[in-house]
Amino acid sequence: ELIARLKEAYRRPYPFQESTLLPVKSSATALMAKEEKEEARPAIGGHGGTVDEGLAYHAFLQHADFARSAAENLARLGEEGLLDEAALALLDPEKLERILALPSIASLKGKRLMREQTFLVSLPASEVMPGVSAADEIILQGAIDLLAVDEDGYLILDYKYSSHDAARLRADYAPQLRLYRKAVARAAGIDERTIRARIVNIMGLFEVEM
User: Fold this and answer.
1) Which residues contact 41 (CB under 8 A, 6 or more apart)?
2) For residue range 156-187, what is the model confidence (pLDDT) as tens digits?
3) Are 203 and 47 in contact (CB under 8 A)?
4) What are the DSSP calls for 82-100, one per residue?
């Protein structure tokens, strides 16, 4: 009887097994990869352009003065060595003007801007990891393409270079933008529901409200 009781005790499942499987540290990219694997979705692709083109446009927006024209920005970025000749050759001035005219980009003039804003925050796993109920906090890191601050609060802009439509972008990148919102809310001490977030599709020249 004693042996049976001992076996029952030691074979009892550990009630916090899920917590032992949590990573100590993760990132937006890792969380997206995990969710795609669990949902058996194909890897994010279909970008339609080259990786170098996407990087060149992203770099332009990273350094652009949104109060200036595309031509003025291209001249300045070249003179200051912020973009090399190879990157400049991949940029279409006409397309850049259309990008700068997108509502979210055009609204950035005069706002306080934080570009490539890195973060390192501790958040409950149940809030950021799909299918996880454990409330243990894990450390999460990432970088927000652009965080703007104005009288209406915070606006997160995430640049994508993709041929996907708005519905696909919204579905693919919802976990990433959700994490960004939570990171900004934790850092600023505000309600995450007050934070606006949009994807700017550089290739398709449209925005996606998240």
Assistant:
1) none
2) 999 999 999 999 999 999 989 999 999 999 98
3) yes
4) SS-HHHHHT--HHHHHHHH
